[in-house]
Amino acid sequence: MVGAGLGYQLRVPRRLVASAMAFGAGTLLAAMAYELIADAHERAGLLPTAVGAVTGALAYTGVNLLLARRGGRHRKRSGGQQPSEQQQAGSGLAIAVGSLLDGVPESVVIGGSVLAGGPVSTAAVAAIMISNVPEGLSSATGMRRAGRPARYVYGVWGAVAMASGAAALIGYLLLGRAPEPVLAGITALAAGAILTMVSDTMIPEAFDQAHLLIGLVTVAGFLTAFGLSQLAG
Fold first, then answer.
1. Do residues 78 and 11 lie in contact, with contact meaning Cβ atoms separated by under 8 Å?
2. Can you spell out the DSSP letters for 98-115?
3. Contact 153, 140 (CB under 8 A)
């Protein structure tokens, strides 16, 4: 919601949006590698982790393909790539559903492991929180450029926030006491979906307005999340 508010109310330069997305992508890459994938491997080994991650990536890609055909392909883009409702009827709903899709896997993991006292540390939560700000910033900027009203923008991101909270609660209730192999599989599945989301929606926006420091910004985000992971450990 913070990122969406900034993106809709302010005219943020696209180079700054790209830098914010690069930093957020870096934090998520580190969190997935050093928190979720590593945790799943420790719980169940390499094969279940790989199967879970690939399953999550395939599931996310399949749903994303359906949404892309209905206008939700560029939901995280800020530079006018998002279609308006006049350009493609139903694109507003597709963008809203896609935004919900992006936020659910990470919330399930938080609920299933962090709230239940599992080994996934608060570093993962911090990395997800940091990355969500530029996601909302870029997406809301693109929504404004597509002519969508404030009630739509804040409605979408308010729904994402509430759905993420509900997903965390469901993760806590259903997965908090699940057997180790099951929890490892769910963790790896969510990690695969999140990594696919980063590649499909965040990195393109980050490097669309690439400048000479964009790689350094990505590394800074990666090291921030990695440092939090090490401090929490």
1. no
2. HHHHHHHHHHHHIIIIIT
3. yes
**What confidence tens digit (pLDDT) does each residue in 132-148 have?**
888 888 888 888 888 89
Distance CA 82, CA 44 (A): 41
CB 182 within 8 A of CB 43: no
| CA nearest neighbour of 206 among 80, 17, 48 | 17
Q: Among all chains, which residue has been given the structure tokens 């995280």?
A: 76
Rounded Cα gap, residues 216 and 7, in angstroms:
23
Helix (H) or strand (E) holding 156: helix 150-175
Kindly report, residue by residue over 161-172, the tens digit of the pLDDT.
898 888 888 877
Block residue for tokens 């609920």: 111
Residue 202 DSSP one-character state: I
Beta strands in the chain (DSSP E): none
Q: Are 111 and 167 in contact (CB under 8 A)?
A: yes
